[in-house]
Amino acid sequence: MLPQPISDDRALSQSLHQALIKRFHDALPPLNQSQLSECSFGFAPSPTGVKTFFIVTPSLFVAETLLVDLDQIVEQVQTLMIGVGQVAVCIQPQNNPVETPSSSLVCHPSATFHPEYMMCKVFPVNSAIPSLED
User: Cys-Cys with 42: which of 12, 54, 64, 122 at CB 3.0–4.6 Å?
Assistant: First the structure.
């Protein structure tokens, strides 16, 4: 049998990631589920090759709310996402810079933070697998 095209592998990988994210979402408390519904998610390696699960929030408030239950978030990642070595909670403000044909990036000014940058805080995931005797 001939190998299937790479697009089938990509579709399978996307389907697996979507299922993992849904299980992750459903395993957390209702407040976190509500906050996560506003977020985007992704997987990518760090510069050193560590697989990272990204939670991209639309505001500092959502990120801070999620950080209150960070231990539960990291525990669920450890349980459901074998091989993921860190969790990144990121803020991507809704006021993203806008590029117009006649100008460079146009930013919406803020006294506290610059919306042209996405900020992340990275947390390690303990990769130790619990034994049956624990």
Answer: 54
